[in-house]
Design goal:
By secondary structure, the protein is of the alpha+beta class. It has two helices and eleven strands; from the N terminus they run βαβββββαβββββ.
Length: 251
């Protein structure tokens, strides 16, 4: 199964040409390769190398970048992960393939562990949810070793923004969020998966449901950590609500 990471290109991630640093793009690709390989191996995984990476198109400030990774080959300890990086314009939906390549990942084994790696899994059918992933690193955890609630909300808000933008193809802002209950902690080293979908579309607003799941990379244990509903509003250049679908784009 593929894993997907979606992020925005902000000025701090761009060079003096206003395009995404190649190193930031490679970091996204390495992260999805790591997560895809970890989901298959359920062992500690490291990057052994990658094949030649050619950047065919830029990702510009203000665009989204989508990195995907999929295990296409497994050996006794090694895996080949096919990765792609796409740029997407927020308002038009235009997508460009920035680069693709193959990362070689190695699963670390303890003494006496001779079990073969599983075969690459089949792709799952589209269920209507946009599923994106992230890692929980130490800098985002509290003194208990779990993810800060504020960082969890940041990830959920970004998922709502991406989903609403893809639906409206206009400038959207967060207007409100309904009650959020955190049901289970997310530990450092966990992968988080955000599943989001548009529940309702009005004249200028969208209600987006976001589910937050935690997954232990070694155990595969999944925990439903939180669910929230975000109200996103399509706005004009002065920040006033405007009908969805009324955006005009210059050629």
């Amino acid at each position: 199964m593929s894993v997907r990471l979606i992020d925005m290109v902000f000025p701090g991630d761009a060079n003096h040409h206003g395009t995404l640093f190649g190193g930031v793009g490679l970091a996204h690709l390495d992260k999805v390769a790591f997560l895809a390989a970890s989901r298959v191996a359920r062992r500690a995984v490291v990057t052994a190398g990658c094949e030649r990476i050619d950047f065919a198109a830029p990702a510009r400030i203000g665009e989204m970048v989508e990195a995907t990774g999929r295990v296409v080959r497994t050996g006794r300890s090694s895996m080949g992960v096919e990765v792609e990086l796409h740029a997407e314009a927020l308002l038009t939906g235009e997508r460009r393939l920035c680069t693709r390549g193959l990362f070689n990942m190695v699963a670390l084994r303890e003494a006496g562990d001779d079990a073969p790696l599983p075969a690459p899994p089949q792709e799952e059918a589209d269920d209507g949810w946009l599923r994106t992933v992230e890692m929980v690193f130490p800098g985002t955890t509290n003194h208990y070793g779990t993810l800060f609630g504020g960082d969890a909300l940041k990830h959920m808000g970004k998922a709502a923004f991406v989903t609403a933008t893809r639906q409206a193809r206009g400038v959207v802002v967060m207007a409100a969020t309904n009650r959020i209950d955190f049901k289970a902690p997310i530990n450092g080293g966990d992968m988080i998966e955000l599943a989001s979908r548009v529940k309702m579309t009005g004249r200028s607003s969208l209600a987006v449901e976001v589910q937050l799941w935690a997954e232990g990379l070694l155990s595969g244990e999944r925990r439903h950590s939180a669910t929230a509903e975000f109200i996103m509003v399509c706005v004009d250049g002065e920040g006033r609500p405007k009908p969805i679908g009324s955006e005009t784009h210059n050629p």
